[in-house]
């Protein structure tokens, strides 16, 4: 039997990692500025993270949500503290798609509506409800009905005001579009969503799966605009590689038995991993590092000719070129041994660990300069 071939794969087999460094089976050393799609938040193989998982699995790796799991409450309290949302409630899942799936379902339970406002170039996952609000027909099957979804231009505040009405269930938006090209949501745009949802009884869902957990230099990107969403979805950096996701839920929502459910979500091992991530972010000042190193990266990149546009915040960086980036990305990977990502044909995407160092950014910039026309 072979695996189902759905991804183009580079012929690299990483076998060991530490912080922002990977080693392959041949001992070749790579710098990781992509973190496996923004998943590595506190660095590969962080000792506190490794110990937390090791200690937990040695005692109890899993039991279902039919018993008390005190780690869930510890995680909820620490997350409420660091995010500034102690009055919100936490529902734990296993991935970003599952988080968004539950966010959309909860919104519909809340107001009994179906119409969803989403945005062009947005990406929210590959499962049924999540892929319906994702602006990519190539990943939608016939069963993924999106007839209830209205796609608007991202950052068009006036279009939001016109489209949200008394039939709208929810507006779902990324604070910074990831797959769509690292486009940052403006303050006016986010405020228009909040005001329109309040006016018409719709739910404001903030997809923080990629842009959340400190990547922007703030814990969540909605903090820049100062408007609180009703539901915030999370995953990726939440577990630093361990599969965990979830939603933060405003106090306006009432929990009922059977409303949401999960077998694996919030298990002992997932909570131990997620809790250690928060502890490291706090203890090592990784939000400040994301701000400082991100600012440094932007300042250095602005000095390079050949870059059409720089977008992003903190350590979520999009570098748009006039030329296609595929060949440049591959040269940086195979000749300079640096992992990066892309968003579309012309944008290089950087999503490093929140603990990345300036010298690792410098190595990338030196490499990029060599290949720009």
Describe the structure in brief.
This protein is an alpha/beta fold and 373 residues long.
Explained architecture:
With 373 residues, the protein is α/β, with parallel strands linked by helices. The chain is 35% helix and 20% strand. It has a 7-stranded mixed beta sheet with strand order 4-12-11-10-7-5-6, sandwiched between helices. The mean pLDDT is 97.
Helix content: 25-40%
Q: Which series of helices and strands comes N to C? A: EEEHHHEHEHEHEEEHEHEEHHEEHEEEH
Average residue-wise pLDDT: 97
* Uncertain stretches of 5 or more adjacent residues: none
Tell me the distance between the termini. Answer: 45 Å
Overall 3D form? globular
Which strand order does the major sheet show?
Answer: 4-12-11-10-7-5-6
Keywords for this entry:
single chain, 373 residues, alpha/beta, seven-stranded mixed sheet, 12 helices, 17 strands, 35% helix, 20% strand
Q: How would you summarize the topology of this molecule?
A:
Elements: E1 14-18, E2 21-24, E3 29-32, H1 35-38, H2 47-59, H3 70-83, E4 89-93, H4 96-111, E5 115-119, H5 128-132, E6 149-152, H6 157-163, E7 168-174, E8 176-177, E9 183-184, H7 187-200, E10 203-207, H8 222-225, E11 231-234, E12 245-249, H9 268-283, H10 286-301, E13 307-313, E14 316-321, H11 326-334, E15 338-339, E16 341-342, E17 347-350, H12 358-371
Parallel strand pairs: 3-15, 5-6, 5-7, 7-10, 10-11
Antiparallel strand pairs: 1-2, 2-3, 4-12, 8-9, 11-12, 13-14, 14-17, 16-17
Helix pairs in contact: 2-9, 3-9, 6-7, 10-12
